[in-house]
Amino acid sequence: MTQDKEQETQATAKSYVSVAFKIAVAAIFAALVAVATLLFVVPIPATSGYFNLGETLIYVAALLFGPWVGLVAGAGASISDALVAAQYAPGTFAIKAIEGFFVGFLTKKLNRKIKSLSLCASIAIVVGGFEMVAGYFLYETLALGYPTALALLEVPFNIVQMLVGLVIAIPVMHAVLRVFPQLKSYL
């Protein structure tokens, strides 16, 4: 075997390992998001929605492993909705998946232009978080038929949920990167 062919084979094998690793990590984070969402539930009686901490793990997954892992982790939140507030499960599947994707994608893009990983992550989380806030508002008014005034009651809870996720996820990201610096290759 020539040296070029051997290097190509090694690169292909490394690529498959990376893909398999990301699939496994995505599945684990989807399950962790579902569990974290169920562990701390604060009901919002007006809309039958609820405040939870699953957001934090969506952000951690997206920040550490990128947009596709963030997407799958976000979709994992729909598992808990199927158990706690089934009417939200279809919307959560899309809204949280898009949120996770945005956070991972924007962090990667911004990290190329901005030196501060914390700043990149904060911007990405705020953008992704506001997608979540707007997504649930639209889902409640258009799909669930809630009056606008009623759907607006949940907006502050969703903003706080996003901010709590931001405050927890960024230090967790830094702690994980200190322990596993090799994960920086996913940024």
Compose a concise summary of this entry.
By secondary structure, this protein is mainly alpha-helical.
Mean pLDDT: 91
Helical percentage: over 70%
Strand content: under 5%
CA-based gyration radius: 18 Å
- Ranges with pLDDT <50 over ≥5 residues? none
Overall number of domains:
1
| CATH hierarchy, class | Mainly Alpha
User: Would you identify the CATH architecture?
Assistant: Orthogonal Bundle
Main sheet attributes: strand count, strand direction, barrel closure: 2 strands, antiparallel
Number of helices: 7
Shape: elongated
Summing up helix and strand content along with how strands pair, one would put the structural category as mainly alpha
**SSE series:** HEEHHHHHH
Count all strands and give the number.
2
Topology:
Elements lengths: L2 H37 L2 E3 L4 E3 L2 H12 L1 H9 L1 H8 L4 H23 L5 H27 L4 H32 L8
Antiparallel strand pairs: 1-2
Helix pairs in contact: 1-2, 1-3, 1-4, 2-3, 2-5, 2-7, 3-5, 4-5, 5-6, 6-7
Summarize the structure in words.
There is one protein chain. With 187 residues, the protein is mainly α. Helix content is 79%, strand content 3%. Helix 2 (54-65) packs across helix 7, helix 3 (67-75) packs antiparallel against helix 5 (89-111) and helix 4 runs antiparallel to helix 5. It starts with a helix and ends in an 8-residue tail after the last helix. The model has no long low-confidence stretch (mean pLDDT 91).
